[in-house]
Amino acid sequence: MLKVIKKYLTGGIGCFDKEGCPVRVERFGALDVKGVFYSCKKADLEKFKLQEQELAVKLMREQSLKVCIVYMNIRTCISCINLYPVGAG
Q1: Which among 7, 34, 50, 88 is least surrounded, fewest beta carbons within 10 Å?
Q2: 86 to each of 4, 31, 55, 83, 89, how far by Cα in Å?
């Protein structure tokens, strides 16, 4: 199930900003909503998203140890390229 979720779900930790905080990229315009909801159970999707958040916390801890600064937030960049309003097109 994880392969299917990874195939249809977009986004993830992309890089670190100049202050050292993790940057999460969400590509809503490239999201295949039908593919996600038809290919997995709600519980599988929730589990996957929790695993992503755990990874982000782990990356923050590692980065904090590396530069001796405690990071408590994640930057999020939302891409709406190819996102159309409901009923358009």
Answers
A1: 88
A2: 25, 14, 33, 9, 9
Query: Residue 16 in contact with residue 63, Cβ under 8 Å?
Result: yes
pLDDT tens digit sequence for 15-47: 888 877 788 888 777 677 777 778 888 888 888
Tell me the pTM. Answer: 0.66
Which two three-digit tokens encode residue 35? 């593919």
Handedness of CA 38, 42, 47, 52 (dihedral sign): positive
Amino acid at 66: K
Q: Return mean pLDDT, the chain.
A: 78
| 82 phi/psi in degrees, rounded to 5 | 70, 15
What residues does 15 pair with on adjacent strands?
A: 23
Q: How far apart are CA 19 and CA 44, in angstroms?
A: 33
